[in-house]
């Protein structure tokens, strides 16, 4: 892969959001690998896995009182771009992570509302190709609604095919290649965003 280092300018910040309440689930492993590639390409990264979020169900009247929500919003504000990874549950994004995205309503009145002008890499891990493709389309629609730019490549991982080994490393070379390509697209967009102050 090409070197996308950032020279003398500040490195962009890539925020990863995702996973499940089960530590090191396939969606979390995929997210960690994508962020590892983003770091290799010169970005700074931050990770919020599902267990870190610990958010109550979104209530617009109470959301501003939720400390974990405020931490999420600040992390999104700091980020130049985002990588989002979700399991596919019954043909859709997990309720836990959709709830986290609902809290982004707290960015509505920002100068750059929601995910405005941020590229968002989308990763789905599901037990079957049909579920992965269906959920990936749903994630893209949600990112569009939040004014983000889904990367051209979205990665759907069939978790039934054991894409990761017991050591957490990628066991399917194609999955590794796709995650690296997705990270490269996010970092390329982030570099442009930092360089021209979009």
Automatic annotation (TrEMBL):
<dbReference type="InterPro" id="IPR050712">
    <property type="entry name" value="NAD(P)H-dep_reductase"/>
</dbReference>
<keyword id="KW-0560">Oxidoreductase</keyword>
<dbReference type="GO" id="GO:0005829">
    <property type="term" value="C:cytosol"/>
</dbReference>
<protein>
    <submittedName>
        <fullName>NADPH azoreductase</fullName>
        <ecNumber>1.7.1.6</ecNumber>
    </submittedName>
</protein>
<feature type="domain" description="NADPH-dependent FMN reductase-like">
    <location>
        <begin position="14"/>
        <end position="160"/>
    </location>
</feature>
<dbReference type="GO" id="GO:0050446">
    <property type="term" value="F:azobenzene reductase (NADP+) activity"/>
</dbReference>
<dbReference type="InterPro" id="IPR005025">
    <property type="entry name" value="FMN_Rdtase-like_dom"/>
</dbReference>
<dbReference type="GO" id="GO:0010181">
    <property type="term" value="F:FMN binding"/>
</dbReference>
<dbReference type="Pfam" id="PF03358">
    <property type="entry name" value="FMN_red"/>
</dbReference>
<dbReference type="InterPro" id="IPR029039">
    <property type="entry name" value="Flavoprotein-like_sf"/>
</dbReference>
